[in-house]
Amino acid sequence: MKKFLAPLALVLSASAYAHPFTISEPKVNDDCAQESEIRVVEENGEYYIKAFFDGSMNAIADGDAKYQKRRCTLDFKLSVAPNYQIDVFDFAVDGVYNLSENGIARLTVSHRVANAPSVRQTAFFSRANGSAPAGDISNFVGSIFGYQLQNYGSCGASGIPLETSVYASATQPSGDSGLTQIDLDQGVSSTQGYTICKIKVKPCH
After folding, report:
1. What does the angle CA 151 – CA 26 – CA 115 come to, to the nearest 5 degrees?
2. C-alpha dihedral over 191, 181, 29, 20, to 10 degrees?
3. Higher pLDDT, residue 15 or 55
């Protein structure tokens, strides 16, 4: 549980299309942990792209460090199996946070697919605004539909570019006891991993 995006070891099935889509050409920048993986995962007949992080990239503020921010950008490309086309990408963010008495935690996640409008979610947490001292983050970010992809909405589309950007920060004033912390959550499904998106495809007619 917890940890962030990372430079990737891409994991694909031996079969070119064991799933209705594959991912390729991963590129990761900024504050990213090392030796992590991005996988296509099937759960209960639904398909996800997930990050399996190696090492921690949580933002933590405490008595020694009053402010910390972390940013990570992940780019990769998606190709759909012949006779299928994209129906919808569903994006959400799962995380956990902890607050000192006067600490503030922030998590922003944004997603872009090809030239479709991007989707973005920012969550702020502080006790002054009514947040619990610790808790889960589970927010729906938004959807991007196949009809928004223009040239990439066709059957068997290949090389569809996706970008996910994560920004996390923790702030805490001098004199506060405890710590303020925010993380992405890897413990939200049977396969673990942080869910970047759920992808629905449909047969071509």
Report:
1. 25
2. 20
3. 55
Residue 193's pLDDT band (cuts 50, 70, 90): confident
Q: How far apart are CA 25 and CA 22, in angstroms?
A: 11
Among 204, 193, 144, 205, smallest CA distance to 42 is for: 193
180 within 8 A of 60, measured Cβ to Cβ: yes
pLDDT confidence of residue 1:
40
Nearest CA among 36, 42, 45, 46 for reference residue 11: 36
How far, in Å, are 28, 68, 77, 116 from residue 113 at the CA level? 16, 29, 9, 6
**How far apart are alpha carbons 198 and 176 in whole angstroms?**
39
Q: Dihedrals φ, ψ of 14, to 5°?
A: -65, -30
d(CA 102, CA 134): 13
pTM of the model: 0.79
Whether residue 74 contacts residue 18, with contact meaning beta carbons closer than 8 Å, is answered with no
CA–CA–CA angle 18, 23, 24 (5° rounding):
125
Supply the Cα-derived Rg of the chain in whole angstroms.
18
Q: Which amino acid is at 74?
A: L
| Cβ–Cβ under 8 Å, residues 145 and 88 | yes
The Cα–Cα gap between 126 and 132 comes to: 8
* Cα 23–Cα 29–Cα 34 angle in degrees, nearest 5: 80
Contact 88, 94 (CB under 8 A): no
